[in-house]
Amino acid sequence: MTTLVRLRPTTPPRRPGRIAILGAPNSGKTTLFNALTGHRAKAGNYPGVTVDRREGDLQRRFGADGVRLVDLPGVYSLEPQSEDETVAVRVLEGGFGEAPPDGVVVVVDATTIERGLPLLAEAAGLGLPVCVALTMIDELKARHGEIDPKELQDELGVPVVGVVGNRGLGIDDLGALVSSPWDWTPGPGLLHGAEAKTPEDRFGWARDVLGACRRQAPEPNRWTRRLDRFLLHPAIGSAVFLVFVGFFFQAIFTWATPAMDFLSGLMDGLADQILATLPDTAFTRLLADGVIRGVGAVIVFLPQIVLLFTVILFLEACGYMARAAFVVDRVMGWVGLEGRCFIALLSSYACAVPGIMATRTIPSPRDRLTTILVAPFATCSARLPVYILLIAAFIPADPVLGPFTWQGLTLTGLYFLGTGAALLSAAVFKRGLLRGATLPFYLELPPYRLPRPSDIALGVWDRAKLFLRRAGTIILAASVILWFLLNLPRRPADPQLSVTENQRAVLEGSYAASAGRLLEPVFAPMDFDWRINVGLVASQAAREVMVATLAQIYAHEGEDGEGLGVLLAGSGEGGAPPLLSRASALALLVYFAFAMQCMSTLAVIRRETGGWRWPAFTFAYMNGLAWLSAWLTFVLASAAGA
Amino acid sequence: MDRTLADVADASDGRLLEIAGVTGTGADSRRLREIGFCAGAPVRFIRRAPLGDPAMYELRGALLSLRRSEARRIRVHRAGA
Q1: What DSSP element (H or E) covers B42?
Q2: A264 lies in which domain range?
Q3: For residue range A368-391, what is the model confidence (pLDDT) as tens digits?
Q4: Domain end: A382, A415, A438, which one?
Q5: Do the Cβ atoms of A218 and B61 come within 8 Å?
């Protein structure tokens, strides 16, 4: 009990370099960071929403220049168990090749102050100068609670500022405060807490501090209780949850369509315009077919990404996302996962990349890794163009029952296939490869709050930027490389042949065609021809490249007005023969449902797992499963006479 | 009398309970204590999830969800009993 708290040298530097902002999830930390920096980070209500470390400069209007603020991930304690917590602790201890911060602003939610003070004690125990930002004081008052920041300050010795982050109250005081961390001298009260060794000691200390402060605990949040009674009701709650999932899919697949059609028309128009105006050189074709159409095939997903994140961020910020995790936790428990994994998987239906990034809020490393490994099975939006092309070409639009058609049922079936594969693989991994003791599952259910539109808009913008960067790099590179592979080696044009026949000759002699033929033994059991194989190789970069590739391969085939689908399925009586039988098309659909064909996902798995081992494993097991299932589908469909 | 309930997983009404301790050692039990399930703290059962598990508890002014398996580790007795 005699450990001395090391204080840093008291000679004041000319100005503070870095100030870290530390606090529990949902303490209002990110909103505070936004207000101080003017450069906004995402603010949400789902525990652990601040997964990336964010930095920003203190606004000049607070009177200090060159103060850098670091927004740490939300943590409950400085004994890290999740990735988020590890990051926070490493920053505070001077990890990542940087010096420790010059001071720490500990953000404490005034409505749950008893839970926030132990973190302050731990931070003070590191020997760093600390001060306290007391958030949600308006909510505390509304719930008839009371605490006097001045009294708390006297008790602790370090500055305590009451703030209402989203209304800017107290922000000026806090802004002025953070430029002079050398003045934050802990009093005996805080030093006592800093020496506490166990959680019990720290919570006991927090009680003592609050007891000395004439604090009035708030009444329960009535609105939250009332809404929970409805939204978590045994029957109504489950129905609300199902409506929520339905709404989610409706949003990303139906409502985004007009904007997606518009973008796709824009890209096609641009490519046609380039072909029509520029001289017909190889460069023009590279620009139009390779760059514009290739990248355009991905850009069209932007409306979907924007809509998806608007929905996700809104639900996170208003508090429902944590409830959704609470409702579905039992189901996730059956496959050995927990409620938070569900949120990550749900995001993966738009794109596995943000879904995998969202796993950082999962405290158990095993659950997190399992979720990462199965997330790519979720039917991401990149599979959709392939599904739509193949289904429209090969599956009859005949009604089955009521409004349902074979086409619709096939699409639904593919979604179930992906979901089933994800859950089954998770169960297998948790029972085998990743078996082991589980961490306790706990989830904080924040009060319902009305989110600020600007916080959501900025969060959506961050994600959209990330997506566009991917389109501008990986997809662009893949499209250009593919174009060269499809058009090289060059061969002199044969004057006896038509332009189309010459282009076909180039294609059939291209490097890509050689690669496609090389793969014929692998995909022969499903009766895929070399052109499909070229598409499969190209779609290793990104699934939607399949459509772009087939479009490039068939750019010179077919009569006017004949869509790609007609070319694939044949034009019927006396027309062009089909490229694929229906059995092969079904096999191809199943292959896409299971295969790991996405460079970005592999890259993000590498980044999140810190090596090539897990991306290599994911690649191998998913593609292995895809091949087997595709073959099985082909055999069964052929036997059934498809 | 019936001063001791076995653990907080047995709670099914909104009565205020007092935590007697967390069973087990190691990281699991430590984490439960760190989030506030320490001896002496009052805790209250609020509701179960629609599928019966996990359950929501009120602890130190916050709402927390625990699965039955974790709730089993938190020993409680009736507050003021």
Answers
A1: strand B42-48
A2: 236-382
A3: 899 999 999 999 878 888 888 888
A4: A382
A5: yes
First to last CA, chain B: 9
* Paired residues of A103 in beta bridges: A19
For A471-493, how does the pLDDT look when each residue is reduced to its tens digit (9 = 90+)? 777 778 877 888 888 888 877 77
Kindly report, residue by residue over A249-300, the tens digit of the pLDDT. Answer: 677 667 777 888 888 889 888 988 998 898 888 888 888 877 887 777 778 7
Contact A79 B30 (CB under 8 A): yes
Instruction: Judge if A93 and A150 occupy the same domain.
Output: yes
Residue A591, pLDDT score: 96
Residues 6+ apart with CB under 8 A from A610: none
- A334, A352, A382: which is the final residue of a domain? A382
Q: What is the pTM of this model?
A: 0.80
Does residue B57 contact residue B36 with C-beta atoms inside 8 Å? Answer: no
Of A112, A229, A326, the CB nearest to B62: A112
- Specify the long-range contacts of residues B48-52, CB closer than 8 Å, at least 24 apart: B48/A234, B49/A232, B49/A237, B49/A326, B49/A327, B49/A329, B49/A330, B50/A232, B50/A233, B50/A234, B50/A235, B50/A237, B50/A238, B50/A241, B50/A327, B51/A238, B51/A327, B51/A330, B51/A331, B52/A330
Which residues on B lie below 8 Å from A81 (Cβ)? 27, 31
**Residue B3 C-alpha, separation from nearest chain A C-alpha, in angstroms:** 22
**Interface with chain B: mutation pick from A445, A448, A449, highest number of B CBs within 10 Å:** A445
All structural domains of chain B with their residue ranges:
4-78
CB atoms within 10 A of CB A20: 24
ipTM: 0.92
How far off is chain B from A331, nearest CA to CA, in Å? 8
**A160: in domain:** yes
Report the top-level CATH class of B4-78: mainly beta
CB contact under 8 Å between B67 and A218, yes or no, is: no
Distance from CA of B15 to the nearest CA of A (A): 14
Is the distance from CB of A290 to CB of A249 less than 8 angstroms? no
Instruction: Characterize A343-361 residue by residue with b for buried, 16 or more Cβ atoms within 10 angstroms of its Cβ, and e for exposed.
Output: bbbbbbbbbbbbbbbbbbb
CB A184 within 8 A of CB A127: no
